[in-house]
Specification:
single chain, 381 residues, mainly alpha, 3 domains, 3-stranded antiparallel beta sheet, two-stranded antiparallel ribbon, elongated
């Protein structure tokens, strides 16, 4: 069989990149919208997600290892707020929380006083500063009463260990701001490694997964699976706008099962890129690496097919400039019809009749044939 009427033009990388960016932006918008407006309220109602975040912030601020500053938006000034006032910032002003090791100050006593409070007050549960009218127990280190092991291997209470003498020995070789910032970093690490803090972070991470994963799954299945199945050529919105789509490797119409398989492979690729390390800023970096590998593999391919296209036996084409068919049978049928139409021109002598007369007779013959077919259908009914 001849393939004279089939014409396939591959989709260029520029169009594919633009379509990928358009789809990515729309997908991200829907993902974030679902996460913020649907699953975050559910997490708040079911797991008190917002309260967990406030609790973590409270422990950080009241340890004095974080500096709480009030920003006056109108006057563009900043001032440090005492820990017992951080819950009552002036209306309209913003609060900013900075880890002690990132705080910009050259005052050694500023760092020394805060570290002294963390070890000798916060960790021992003695002389804790807390907001007036609040329950002191809500602001004390939750495990300050737990036994710890001292340098001699004895189990002692923190308040018996973190004494003035111990603290003086601890900072005796610290003489510069850099030294105290390094010690502040170690202290923040110490705070976050406390059992209560690890448990709290575990709950927060669990809530974040509960919010992110369902929103991601629904967004992906809607954007990258349902939409391509609705369109004949497996297009997403971006591909539809850019006039590109999918065909099978043999250049016939892509099968539904190929679309499903291809999009599920893409889901695996994106999921591994996004969540291989965890949810956060690192996810963006790993996704970027995944997209980069995907593009490089596509560029170096002789046929400019992506790894996923190879696996799914699909081919990306310019739908605006390509001609293809559902299968070989349909192609052969179209070829036969075209040959029949072209043969009509051979029955007319251009010297005897002009082109308008010839075209009119051809159209009349087609109309006559269609009317006869309609009559046959009515008779059968």
């Amino acid at each position: 069989m001849k393939n004279s009427i089939r014409s396939i033009q591959e989709a260029n990388l520029g169009r594919r990149m633009i379509a990928m960016i358009m789809d990515g932006v729309l997908f991200a918008f829907v993902w974030v919208a679902l996460a913020l407006w649907v699953f975050t309220p559910i997490a708040n109602a079911a797991f008190h997600y917002s309260d967990l975040g406030v609790t973590g912030l409270k422990y950080e601020v009241f340890s004095k290892l974080y500096v709480c500053e009030e920003i006056d938006v109108d006057n563009k000034t900043t001032k440090v707020i005492d820990v017992n006032k951080f819950e009552s910032a002036t209306s309209g002003n913003e609060l900013q929380y900075t880890p002690l090791y990132n705080y910009n100050s050259e005052d050694l006593n500023f760092y020394k006083d805060r570290l002294h409070y963390y070890y000798c007050c916060y960790k021992t549960g003695e002389n804790i500063e807390y907001p007036e009218g609040k329950n002191p127990e809500d602001y004390k280190c939750p495990n300050y009463r737990q036994l710890i092991r001292d340098k001699d291997g004895k189990d002692v209470l923190p308040k018996d260990y973190y004494t003035e003498a111990w603290f003086s020995e601890y900072i005796k070789d610290k003489t510069t701001v850099k030294d105290f910032k390094n010690l502040s970093y170690e202290s923040v690490t110490d705070l976050r490694e406390m059992p209560f803090f690890e448990e709290l972070n575990g709950k927060i991470s669990g809530c974040q997964l509960f919010i992110a994963l369902p929103a991601f799954g629904i967004s992906y299945l809607g954007f990258y699976l349902l939409v391509p199945l609705l369109y004949k050529n497996g297009e997403t919105f971006g591909k539809k706008v850019m006039k590109i789509g999918l065909v099978s490797k043999d250049c016939f119409t892509v099968k539904k099962r190929q679309i499903v398989f291809r999009q599920l492979l893409l889901l695996v690729w994106v999921s591994l890129s996004l969540f291989v390390i965890g949810i956060g800023l690192t996810s963006i970096a790993t996704l970027g690496v995944g997209v980069f590998i995907y593009l490089i593999a596509t560029v170096i391919s002789k046929t400019k097919r992506s790894p996923i296209d190879y696996a799914a036996y699909t081919y990306m084409i310019n739908t605006n400039k390509s001609v293809w068919f559902a299968d070989a049978e349909e192609e052969e049928k179209k070829e036969t019809e075209l040959e029949e139409k072209m043969s009509k021109y051979q029955r007319y002598d251009p010297n005897e009749k002009n082109l308008i007369q010839i075209g009119t007779e051809i159209v009349n013959e087609d109309v006559k044939r269609e009317l006869e077919e309609e009559k046959k259908k009515k008779i059968k009914k």
